Amino acid sequence: MTAASDITRLTINQARQAIARRDVSVGELNEAILSKIKKENPDLNAYISVFEEEVLERARHIDADPTGQTGKLSGIPIAIKDTILTRNRRTTACSKILENFIPPYSAHVIERLEAEGAIIIGKTNCDEFAMGSSNENSAFGTVKNPWDKTRIPGGSSGGSAVAVRADMCLGALGTDTGGSIRQPASHTGCVGIKPSYGRVSRYGAIAFASSLDQVGPLAKSVADGALLLEVIAGKDERDSTSVDLPVSDYSKNLTVSFKDLTIGVPKEYLSEGLDSEIASAVRAAIDVFKREGARIVDISLPHTKYAVAVYYLIATAEASANLARYDGVKYGHRARETKSLLDMVCRTRTDGFGKEVKRRIMLGTFALSSGYYDAYYRKAQTVRTLMKEDFLNAFKMCDCIVGPTAPTAAFKIGEKIDDPLQMYLSDIYTISTNLAGAFGIVVPCGFTSGGLPIGLQIMSAPFREETGLRAAYSFEQATEWHKRRPPS
Amino acid sequence: MKIDEQEVKRIAKLARLYIPDAEVAGFTRQFNEIIAYVETLEHCGTEGVKPTAHVTLEVAGTRTPMREDVVRKSLPADEVLKNAPARDEVHFRVPAIIHPL
Predict the structure, then answer these.
(1) Are strands A262-266 and A400-404 parallel, antiparallel or unpaired?
(2) Of A208, A232, A321, A418, which sits with the fewest C-beta atoms within 10 Å of its C-beta?
(3) Which of A74, A156, A221, A251 is catalytic?
(4) CB atoms within 10 A of CB A126
(5) How near does any CA of chain A get to the CA of B90, in Å?
(6) A483 HSE (CA, 13 A, CB side)
């Protein structure tokens, strides 16, 4: 197969057009994707489960009645992070504690995708319970970065990012609590979107930190990401934090338009701790906006220095509460030959959870416990209010805040795993977005001298996703970075 | 503030986790490093600032969403029990909670 005829390289929009023109059938497309997975996945380890039989069955069904399939994603193969429930299809959260769990219901976002005709190809690898920034914390092994297989792809949605970038699907869903969609998108050179908090229902998304989690798309282009967002966004009665605001046609409303855009550059983001090649790429990206007619203003997010501390208190506290349900009683792993109910619960959790998950549960339990609650958890919640105000004030002065996604490009496998605090500090640019509930999107904006992708992060105010999407789309169309592919 | 190994064991009990004796020292050290880091929040003035629980609350609406108190269809018992480590027809089976005297 030549590069030109490799249909796995298509974007969602290109595939939809090709299917509509009858240039390719849904069966051919999905078979090609399944072949690509068989070829690449043994090495890259992006997928935990692949639903081959079911995929081919659905593809046959769609091809048999092409006029009846009017969904926006009809026949399109999508990969799903394994922290999102898929009915009757194994969902593990990449943990031993849910190794054989078969959900009796699907997440809201899965129902939306399937209602538009999408085909769920399989479940992707991730950091266990979405806790990590490198995909090294999975019970199913590390995922490799297709740009350099000795390096991490980012986390926690590493599997989804790699599945997209290595053409093992046409689009994917991930979850983002502190950067888990955006950072792997940056490290693998694809587009990643974290919706505003409350934009997308969390029903059926295995909870990590309920005030921070959002489900979002990873894709090969901004247009594809906008389409996936449009399909999954909207009010859901079953998630009481989901917001009752109309969802626009994000994909139709994308335009290239720099002239009425004001870009804010936070002075705290382009300072020490940032790798010089990343800083150069981000500055060059800001120059693109300027050259094309956007206004650039300096802004300040003064509480940035507290972001990691606030995040690692709030997220771990909420995680300790959310993971209390994994006790071996109703589902999942249960330890055998235990001495009492209490012993059963403790043994189950100790054996079933990995190191990082246990560390965060401990930290969260500490922060919420009597005697510590006010000084740690409550204090973090008040600083969060100040951070949210920083953002609301900044968005009065600009339409979008632009900056780096991560302080370095993809690091080597094993490089940071023994120093949890170092790993946490690498989340600095993405966690503030979750703490403020804002919209964030990452697009490719360059490469290091070693050939590793660099992603530009663009944020807009909560529920102003159209502004962020427009800025991202404009930048993408004005540059060539997104066209570069990993070495085969 | 520094947490000692006793305190780590107490927190582990609250979290329903066992930390093997061989790992307690190492874990306590890492734990204290992280706690020292998060204590930098002490330098941030928060007098009179309210805590944030739901970050987009003003948009979502400040009243807890309610629904009519009517019976709705939910999962059949068999579906719910499918993943049970131990079950009988309609129950999850667990080790005894209350023991005979």
Answers:
(1) parallel
(2) A418
(3) A156
(4) 35
(5) 12
(6) 5
Contact present, A402 and A392 (Cβ < 8 Å): no
- Per residue in A15-62, pLDDT (tens digit) is 999 999 999 999 999 999 999 999 999 999 999 999 999 999 999 999
CA angle A44, A49, A52 (to 5 degrees): 105
A369 interfacial to chain B (CB closer than 8 Å): yes
Inter-chain residue contact B55 with A309, CB threshold 8 Å: no
Q: Answer yes or no: A72 catalytic.
A: no
Residue with tokens 């939306």: A112
pLDDT digits (tens, 9 = 90+) for A83-126: 999 999 999 999 999 999 999 999 999 999 999 999 999 999 99
Q: What is the DSSP string of B62-91?
A: SSPP-----------HHHHHTT-SSB-SS-
**Which residue type is seen at A410?**
A
pLDDT of amino acid A3:
57
Determine whether the interchain pair B17/A241 forms a contact, defined as Cβ–Cβ distance below 8 Å.
no
Strands, sheet with A400-404, edge to edge from the N-terminal-most edge strand: A47-50, A119-124, A77-81, A171-176, A214-219, A191-194, A439-447, A453-460, A400-404, A262-266, A295-299
Q: Do A420 and B34 touch (CB under 8 A)?
A: yes
Contacts of A461 (CB under 8 A, 6+ apart): A391, A392, A395, A438, A439, A467
Average pLDDT over every residue of A334-342: 94
Q: Would you say A225 and A482 are in contact if contact means Cβ atoms under 8 Å apart?
A: no
> Which residue in B15, B41, B64 is closest to A362 by CB distance?
B15
Judge whether A49 counts as a catalytic residue.
Answer: no
What was the ipTM of the complex prediction? 0.94
Model pTM?
Answer: 0.97
